[in-house]
Amino acid sequence: MSNWVQIKGKINKGYGVASGKGGDKRFPNGTIEMQKPFFHKQGLDLEPYFSGTLNISIFPHQYSVKQAKYTFKNVKWAENEPAEDFSFFDCRIRLKNGELQTGLIYYPHPETKPEHFQAADILEIITFKIDDLEYDEDVILEVDSQQIEIS
Q1: What is the DSSP string of 24-78?
Q2: Residues 76, 35: Cα–Cα separation, whole Å
Q3: pLDDT reading at 116 higher than 80
Q4: pTM for this structure?
Q5: Which residues have a Cβ under 8 Å from the Cβ of 79 and sit 6 or more positions away?
Q6: Domain span including residue 52
Q7: Which of 102, 105, 129, 133 could serve as 89's disulfide partner, Cβ 3.0–4.6 Å?
Q8: Quick check: 1 pLDDT over 60?
Q9: Residues 50/62, Cβ–Cβ less than 8 Å
Q10: DSSP β-ladder status, 148-150 and 63-65
Q11: What letters, b where the CB count within 10 A reaches 16 and e where it falls short, cover 49-67?
């Protein structure tokens, strides 16, 4: 039985901190690149994925966390930043050409995240590099209903 639920989403411009494109001098190569070794030590290899996130708005819907595939507590990934908790959830993105791209929802826990908060309708996705995506482009996001609930 399939647990995949589809929801229409739109590519949104993010802060640029995850990829390093936002100009934050504390994270010149981006936070994802800095965090990858810490997640790898705990059993999650993000090396094949692009070091950044796709911000997908599912407005007017919102999501709530049910059961993460991976959760890492108290990750001290940067010397001058507080430790954070992170969870990851399975997802897939159906692109306009019909291609299905696998990835993970990247969820820094808001209660431990110091800044760059996301709106309740934004999911941050870590996936492979996709060259021809544009802001405001529609995509179909597929999530595992046992991991994430869409309302």
Answers
A1: -TT-TT-HHHHHHHHHHHTT---TTS-SS-EEEE-TT--EEE---SEEEEEE--S
A2: 9
A3: no
A4: 0.93
A5: none
A6: 4-150
A7: 105
A8: no
A9: no
A10: antiparallel
A11: bbbbbbbbbbeeeebeeee
Q: Worst-scoring range by mean pLDDT, 13-17, 101-105, 122-126, 137-141?
A: 13-17
Structure tokens at 11: 């590519």
**What is the 8-class DSSP label of residue 13?**
-
Write down the residue that tokens 């990829």 correspond to: 19
Query: Average pLDDT, stretch 6-32?
Result: 86
Dihedral sign from CA coordinates of 70, 146, 49, 33: negative
How far, in Å, CA of 137 to CA of 151, rounded? Answer: 22
Q: Which two tokens stand for residue 38?
A: 């810490």
As for how many domains the chain has, the answer is: 1
Closest CA to 143 of 82, 84, 63: 63
DSSP H helical ranges for the chain: 31-41
Residue bearing the bigger pLDDT, 1 or 64:
64
